[in-house]
Design brief:
The protein contains 5 helices and no strands. The protein is mostly helical. It has one domain. Helix 2 packs across helix 3. The termini are far apart.
């Protein structure tokens, strides 16, 4: 009896753990699986590459926006304006 049941379910693509993982990842990306393991695997790989490219582009945009004005970045790090105001307040309030 068990042999008869296993032979019926032999062609089930969801018996393969690798394919189950592929289907789960496709659902996480919002893509419906086709039922063909090879096609779904290729689609998953292409979507992963697209996602990696998007992330890389965003990181490049952030890096380029930070390097637009190095003088401003240096001034923000040194905070010269805030230090000058603090020194003036010390002098005016007689805290020295």
């Amino acid at each position: 009896m068990v042999q008869a049941i296993s032979s019926i379910g032999r062609d089930n693509p969801f018996s393969d753990p690798e394919y189950i993982k592929i289907v789960q990842e496709l659902y996480q990306l919002g893509i419906a699986p086709t039922g063909n393991k090879n096609v779904d695997k290729a689609r998953l790989e292409s979507e992963k590459q697209k996602l990696a490219q998007k992330i890389e582009q965003k990181m490049q945009e952030q890096a380029s926006s930070q390097n637009i004005d190095p003088q401003r970045n240096q001034m923000e790090e040194e905070r010269l304006g805030a230090m000058n105001v603090a020194e003036l307040n010390k002098i005016l309030l007689g805290l020295r």
